[in-house]
Every structure is written in C-alpha cells, then in structure tokens.
Amino acid sequence: MTNAMSDEELMAQVRGGVGEMLGALFERYHVALFNFFYKLTGERSTSEDLVQEVFLRILKYRHSYRPDTGFRAWMYQIARNARVDLLRRRHPEVSWEPEMSGSFQPDDLAQENQQAALLHAALLRLPEEKREVLVLSRFQDLKYEQIAEIIGCELSTVKVKVHRALQELRDIFQKLETGKLPSKTGLKGAGIRPGSGSLQ
Amino acid sequence: MKCEEVAQLLPDYLQGGAAAEQAAGVREHIVECASCQADVDMWQRLGTLPDQQPGTALRSRFDALLQSYQEGRWEKANLAKEHGKFLDLHALAYWIRTPAVSVAWAAVLVLCGFFAGRYLDRDTNSAQQVAAMRQELKTTQQLMVLSMLQQQSASERLQGVSFSMQEHNADPKILEALLHTLRYDNSVDVRLASLDVLSHYGNRPDVHSGLIDALQAQQSPMVQVALIDVLVQLHRPDTLDHFKQLQQSPTLDPTVRKRLDWGIQQLS
User: pLDDT, tens digit, for every residue of B101-139?
Assistant: First the structure.
C-alpha cells in the first residue's frame, strides 16, 4: 500500500503521528542519503551516523514539515544541517565556512578501485560549497530548482556554482592524476584543515 | 557559440534539461573546444563513481529508533531532555561514564582497597606491605594519567597533563607520554601544557633530546617559540647546534626565526 503513496503523502502521515510510515521513507532514501554523505565525507561510519541522525530529526521536527512542499528538498535541508552540526561539534574551534577545503583522504577510500578512489579524493579536495552542489546535482537526482531551494539561493547561482565546481574538480583531478598533488595528506581523520597561516 | 554562452547552457545540458536547439549548439561547440569538452567529460566521469551500500547496522539502528518512537519512549526521553531534568537516569549514566568521573571513581576504589587492606592486615602490618601498596597506588595514578592523555576531548587531555604534575618523581612512561603529547596532540593548549610539565625535567637527557626533536617537528609557531625559551633556559651545550640547524630551514615562521636568533645569541 505504501508503495503507491508519494513521499509527501507518507510524510503527511508521519506528521500526523503514524510513525511506521517513516519506515517506507527509510526504504526509499536511506541508501541515497548514505551515498550523499559518503561522497561528501569519504567516511562510512560517519555517513551511517548521519543517516540515522536525519531520520531522527525527521521525527523530531515532523510538525515543521509543510505538506505542500517537496519532501526531498526538505529532507536534504535536514541532511545538510545535520552535517554542518556534526562538523561544528567535531571542530568547535573552527568557524565553519562553506568555503573550507576538505583536502584529505580517509582510509575508507582504499576500498574503492583506483580510478574511483582518485576521483573521490579529488572531489573531497573541492571546497565544501562546491563539493556539495556537485554531489547534489550529479548524484542525488535533484533538479537545479530543488537545489536552489535546499541551499537557499538563486537558480542562476546554482548553475554557476555547478559549472565552476566542475572546472575546479577537473583541475584537481588532473593534478592528482599526474602526481602534482599528493593523493593523501597528513591530516588523517581530521576532516578539515583549520585556517592555516595564523599563529596557533 | 562561444564558450561564455556554452557556460550558461552547460549545467542544463549536463542534466539533460536544455532545449533541443540549445543542446545541439552545445554539442556543436564541444567538438571544437577541448576545454568545454573536458567539462562534459568530467561530469560523465563523475557518474562512474560507484554507489556504496551502507552496513546492516544502519537498518537495525533505524528499527530501534522507530520502535522506541512507537512505544512512546522516544517522546518521553525527548520531553525529559527538553525540560532539562537534572537527575535524569540517562544523564546520570552518561555523567558516570565521563572519563573524569571514572578516574575519580578508580581513585576512590584504590584508596578504599588501601585502607581496607590496612585495617584487615593491621596485625601483620609490615613496612614492606605498605611499600607494596604505595607502589600500587603509584601505578594506578600512572595508568590514570596515561589514559587521560588518550581522551578525545582536549580539556580532558589537559586535565591529564595537569594531573601528571602531581607526581613529583618523574616516571619515564609518563614523560614519554607527555613527549608524545607535545609532538602529536592536535590542540595547541594541550601541547603547551605538556611542555610546561616537561620543562621541569629538562635536565634528564631523554627529555632534553625529546624537546629538541619536538622543536624540529613542531608546526605551530607558538609552541616552537615556547620550546626555544625552555631550551635556552636549560642551557645545555648541544642545543646550539640544533638551533643553527633549524635556522637553515627555509619554511621557518618569521616570529620563530627571530626568537631563534635571540636563542643562539644567548647560548653562544
């Protein structure tokens, strides 16, 4: 029965207190969400924790869901916030800016084949904001209009960001491939590089 | 079409959302333009990144979440949290599990054991037994410091460092752990605190050479400057050579270089 229902109908039921409908939404989206986080972080266990956090927040904030809005955009907004909160918790000393660069390669990438690992490493080196927009548009099956809604900016801005992100990724990937950039940096597991250059 | 026009159309083209006529224009352009072609290639290559499957634990965790929600426990747990009930059982359990409390608890148990032992053995109480107890207490303290230095949170590691200061007789294991902290801890505060403790033992050769090593490996200028100060104060003859060696490093921070020059002046 739940198969025939739209995401929005299911979520309206969850909002009304029918918790088991969340199970159907979990079936639909947990793998997609896991891959969203995994592409952004390269860390399996972090990604699993974040998926759990998203569904917890969906329950917690179910009353704030407006039935006339798209469920997926709402879910990805929650997903983004969950991730930013996690980064803030991990690195309270760093003011979290979306421009922050990832630039590290977690051990989990070793499980991917070489080409994919290199590509993923390049993706992780993109600044936060560009990486996110690229992952949303390329892998999460979201239209630019939906992404604009999720990240809260103009449609034209999203398109420009996607194009710039793609160009930068191309550049990083090329450098990684030709060995001009080390594919692994010393900041294992650190997740981010705090602002360098200051006297810390 | 020019690259600028293509750039505007490209995102839609890539997602398959461009109108037929515009898509044809883009296709025509990328045959001749290697750069725009490379953008399209990159997009396609990204698509080859394989999807991963999450572990099975994810589903069981979700099921547990859903079950607790349906049984109403979830609501209660949340409600309790929101009302900020102080003596909430979960909060208490969490509090008991925090490292500082565990350490304090371990210390209480050791002391209880010590006094209970003394009480039970009061007839045969010999100096030897007391010495053995003292040794045990010392070992426990040592373990506490070592475990605190391993903690996730910087403030707990900081506590570990200050706890290590209560030991008047330096233990080599603790000194080794402090040297490790000085080199590898990711909090500058913790590194500085461990340097503070280590500076009291700077006359020991192992600590001294550890400090020299740390100076060379150190990334943070603030810790480097503090290290130079400590080493100058210790005034050992072999320091000068190491300072001069470090002076050659091209990537040295200007503040550190200044301090280093001053240090060399002091030592020579």
Answer: 888 888 888 998 888 877 776 656 677 777 888 888 777
* Alpha-carbon gap, residue B182 to B212, rounded angstroms: 11
**B58:A170 CB<8 A:** no
* Structure confidence at residue A81 (pLDDT): 93
| Cβ proximity of A133 and A104 under 8 Å | no
Quick check: B48 and A48 CB within 8 A? no
B chain contacts of residue A159, beta-carbon cutoff 8 Å: 8, 11-12
Helices B172-184, B205-217: axis angle to 10 degrees equals: 10
Alpha-helix runs per DSSP H in B3-56 = 3-14, 20-32, 34-46
Beta bridge partners of A127: A101
Q: How many residues appear in chain B?
A: 268
Helix B239-247 × helix B221-234 angle, to 10°: 150
Contact B52 A59 (CB under 8 A): no
Q: Which distant-in-sequence residues (6+ apart) come within 8 Å of A143 by Cβ? A: B15, B17
Point out the residue among A34, A134, A199 whose CB comes nearest to the CB of B54.
A34
Contact at CB, B52 and A38, closer than 8 angstroms: yes
| Contact between residue A142 and residue A150 where contact means Cβ atoms under 8 Å apart | yes
Share of chain B above pLDDT 90, in %: 14
Can you tell me the distance from the alpha carbon of A108 to that of A110, in angstroms, rounded to the nearest whole number? Answer: 5
Whether A136 and A37 have beta carbons less than 8 Å apart is answered as no
Return the bridge partners of A101, or none. Answer: A127
**A185 three-state secondary structure:** coil
Query: pLDDT tens across A92-109, in order?
Result: 655 544 444 444 455 566
Specify the amino acid at residue A40. Answer: L
